[in-house]
Amino acid sequence: MIDVFLIIVVLVMMVLLTIINIYILAHYSHPLESKFGESLFAKILIVIALLIVEAEILLLPLDVSNVQEGGSLDMKGFWYTMTMISAIFIFLILPVAYFYYETEGDALRSRVWHATKMEFFFLIIFSIIIFVSFALLSKTNVPVEAVDCLMTGTAGDGYLVALDESSLSTN
Predict the structure, then answer these.
(1) pLDDT score of 30
(2) What confidence tens digit (pLDDT) does each residue in 127-153 have?
(3) What are 62-118's pLDDT values in tens digits?
(4) Which of 94, 49, 58, 93 lies closest to 79 in space, CA to CA?
């Protein structure tokens, strides 16, 4: 059974965070762009991007609460969906919107062409950086030292760890 309380908490938090994000955007906007009618598309993208980041942060306590309540929500699907939405926003939507907004004043066709061209270069440069980093930094050697310890007590009482010098090993 789906936990209705968790669903209600998620929806209420999304509404509250959206209101807070709109307030933050209005508060920190440049005085010349304080009206929401100007560059409305860019401002909507900012609010959505902030909401995505906040939702990803709040997925961890939601996941913990879901597991404690019996695991009725598909958190793996939530994590996958939020990761894909973040990737799409970071690598496609936000750069295109930035490049489009940067060419303000030109004709629509030249603005779209400029944004597409710059997005193409952005993706090429980013892909080169990621692939080179993965090729050079994908493996590591982390030294691990094993420590043996004596567990006392019962599972109901919790575990007490008693360490003495004779139980330490340097294998």
Answers:
(1) 76
(2) 999 999 999 988 888 888 877 766 655
(3) 888 888 877 777 888 889 999 999 999 999 999 999 898 888 777 888 888 999 999
(4) 58
User: Where on the phi/psi map is residue 168: left (φ > 0), alpha (ψ -120 to 50), or beta?
Assistant: beta
Q: How would DSSP label each residue in the chain?
A: ---HHHHHHHHHHHHHHHHHHHHHHHHHS-GGG-STTTTHHHHHHHHHHHHHHHHHHHHHHHHHHHHHTT--S-HHHHHHHHHHHHHHIIIIIHHHHHHHHHTTTS-HHHHHHHHHHHHHHHHHHHHHHHHHHHHHHS-----------EEES-TTT--EEE--GGG----
Residue 90 and residue 84: Cα distance in Å, rounded?
Answer: 10
